[in-house]
Structure formats: structure tokens, C-alpha cells
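Progress report, Aim 2. The chain analyzed during this reporting quarter is listed below.
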Amino acid sequence: MIGGWTIFRYIAAQFLVWFGAFLFALAGIIFLFEIAELLRRAADVPSATVGIVLQMAFFKLPETVAKVMPFVVLFAAMFTFWRMTRSQELVIVRASGVSVWQFLAPVIMTTIALSLVNVTILNPVGARMIARYWELEADYLYHPTTLELTGAGLWLRQKSGGAQEYLLHADHVTLDPLTLTPMMVIVYDKEQRYLGRIDAPSAVLRDGHWVIADAWYNPNRATPQHMPEFRIPTDLTMQKIQESMAAPNTISFWQLPGFIQALHNIGLPSVRHQMQLHGLLAEPWFLAAMTMFAAACSLRLMRRGGALTLAMAGVAVGSLAFALNSVLIALGVTQTLPVILAAWATPVICLACGAAALLFLEDG
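Predicted C-alpha cells for the chain:
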């Protein structure tokens, strides 16, 4: 019998070659489309030069590549088996007594290893790149209200559209209605010069305003003033506050647990960040399931000579799994399903279906 380690290394190397080829090709296509879309958005912004657009497209690339990673793994595995079948290598390997599970193991283990490297090493780098993309987008394409959550509480920068800008700080957040307690507001002018500070027990979001009751205003180099009520106009809603907060994909895998705990401590929902964490934990098993689907589709179809059918089957299987995963994640974000169920259901279902298909087609 041919040495198992030699076969393992050979099949893993073939898979890595196709994986790199598909990853490079899809990343290049995505990069070109991102550039075209950003150029369209920046057409009316003179300061958004071609260099800025290229930077933004580059920094956004990890996010879009992560979304198509299941397709990269699926097609890389399918074409690995296709090439080995056409060259009769797989026929010889199987004739030597190697089962489908033995020559599938190198692909599955390589996929899991690549996914673990992606989650633990590349994800933190990608998170910084995505964060930089959002900064450039905010600087050149639109100017959102910004929010930052730290261990010292919640910081919210509010541009009122008038002659003043506000930096709000609170230690805790409660809902229905949205209330920040205790409230501290630092007041600036348009040139970022300090004008004064407002202190109050709380601020409540009502009818497009932050309503601050029983406040003390301490103007710069002037006598403090008591204000029974002070209003700061805002277009914020609870949904916008959650969206303006650090997006889950801008936080690295290692920092997500601490950020989720900080959200719990301050009283803000953390469902999106929990979904991101569990999605990263489930990623290796979801990609492993794609390799099983690849084997189930390619091995039987290639014996019948259906290359076009092979490609169509791969697209159909990948699209179905991707759609199912997207729907369940959306249900998890809206809290229709528990977070763990929404994040792990697709990998478990796909692993079960892939294993069942292989058992039926190859060992049945």
C-alpha cells in the first residue's frame, strides 16, 4: 500500500494550489468591483482622489473575501478532485485500498488549519483594515455620528449642525426610553475649542432631542449656571447608536469577548457581536462541510464526464449553504433564534448532509 503520509502531503499540496488560485482570482475580481463602486460614490467628492479610493478598496478587501471563502474552499476542493480524476491519480489511489474518507482527510484538515490561521491571525489584521476603511469612508464619503465604547463607559460625539458640537459621556445605558446615566457633556465650537461642560444625573432620548434635566453648565472661565432642562438636537435612534458603535467585523477575534462583556456592563445589546464571535468559532466546521459537498458532487459526476454539471452543482450547493447561513444569521441578529443556534445550525446541518451524501454515494 502507498505510504499514507506521502498521499496526504500530495493531496494537501494539490488542494493548496487550487485554493490559492481561486482565492487570488476572486480577490482580484472583488477588488476591481470595489474600486468601480467607490469611484461611483466618490464622483462628486473632489477630495476623494483615486489614491484614496484605491486605499479604501484595499482596506475593505478582507471583509468581502471572508464572505466568499466558502465558495473558494468548495471550488478548490472540487477542482482538486477533478484534476486527480482526469489524470487517473485518484483511480490509482483508490485501487490501492484508500477509501474516500482517507483521501478526503488531507483536504478537510488543510481547510480547518487554514480557517484557524484566518480566525486567530489574519482576522485581527483584517479587523484593523476594515476599521481603517470605515474611517476613510467617514472622512471622505459621509460624516456619521461616532460612538466609542471603552472600559470607562460610553462616549458619543454629536454634531448638532449649529455653531456647537457635543461630546457625551455616560457610565450606563437603559432602554425604553433610551437613557444615559450619569451624563456629562463637553461643549466645543466648530474649531474644536473648548466652551464648557454640562453635568446632569441623566439624559433621555425623546422626539429627536437629548433631554437633559436638572443640569449644571460650567462655561469656560465663567460662573456655573443651573438649567432645569437642556436639549441637544439629534437624529439618533437606538438602531443608529448600535450601527455607529464599533462594528463586529472591526473587532478582532481575541478582543470580541471583552467587548461583549463591556456591552453587558453598560447595558447595551451585544447580539451582533455574539453572532460574530460564534460565527468565527463555527467557520472551520462550515468550511470543512464545503469540502464534503465538493467530494459528493465532484467524484460521482466526474466519473460520468459531466464537467459543466460539476460546476453547476458546486454553484448550487455553495449558494444554498451560503443562503441558509445568511438567513439564520439574520434571524440570530434579530433575536428570533438563539445566538448559538443561529451561528452553529448551518455548519452542523452541512456537515451532516455532506457526510450522509458521501456515505450513500461512496460506501452505500
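The two ends are 24 Å apart (CA to CA). The CA atoms of residues 87 and 174 lie 65 Å apart. These observations will guide the mutagenesis work planned for the next reporting period.
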